[in-house]
Amino acid sequence: MKPILGILLGEATGIGPEIIAKLCAEGKITAWCRPILLGDARVLKLGMKFAKVQFPFSIIEDISQIDWNGPIPLWDLKNFDPGNIIMGQISADSGKATGQQFEYALQLYNKGIIEGFSFAPYNKAALDQGGYDIFKLFLRNLKFSWPFGELNVVNNLWVSRVTSHVPLKKVSSLLTVKSILGAIKLLNETLILAGNDYPRIAVAALNPHAGDEGLFGKEESEVIAPAIALANKEGINAMGPFPADTLFVNAFKGLYDGVTSMYHDQGQIALKLMNFESAVTILAGSPCPMTTPAHGTAYDIAGKGIANANGMNRAIEIAAAIAQTKKDD
After folding, report:
1. Which CATH architecture has domain 149-272?
2. What's the pLDDT band for 112 if we cut at 50, 70, 90?
3. What is the pTM of this model?
């Protein structure tokens, strides 16, 4: 049977409820999983209004009430009245309600009711104003293994990164054999969970022309190449380091299944130029499959009925694939 996934409506003042409503109305979510929507019924109805769609849903309080051949179930948290919200603006009340969606999803996962979840975009400032630190919430409720971190997916190309939200001037000092190997292993393990038995992983260089034999830097020979060698010893099909400017040209041709980049923008710029609206973020290394579209709350178009739901659809597809592999194992 298809895995049971929680589908979180996300930030009420953003595009989340709208894109969830679109996917439900088009029957796309049920193609990947048995979904349980999590959020406030009033917010879902507002999303349906913006999307100009209708679909049947049933409010539940227990999984035993679900008819998987009937309407899409909604676990109504009854925690946010959108009557007076201003779309496209940060709202502490909306952020608090979004944080409660995460809390409830984690509870359902830990009780074995759902097998993972995909969440529509949230806003970090709104969550903070609502009293939530989402990553501390994850760490309190889940047992992560090393390595763990964010991965991004566009089309069929998966990307991990060794460093993330740090100043560019600090990147070189943070590159170690251990950190690079961890990023390679995280990518390899997650691709296997998603159904790729022997992923082809290209590892990016840090410096122009991969350092050009040390003329432009020695990180390639001192830390990146040794990390790749260790990955190979562990049976991982990693190769490189390759100059980043040509690596992604070949990656988008399908020569690799994944890329390990050295820093945030090295991979993100390439991915988002390729297909921004369908990009997905995965919290990898978590026991609970968790995915979200990479595009964010899109406050500039919230409430206008023009949001693209492709990223959310792909996020649910990936979460379902990972959850299915975990179930089969």
Report:
1. 3-Layer(aba) Sandwich (3.40)
2. very high
3. 0.92
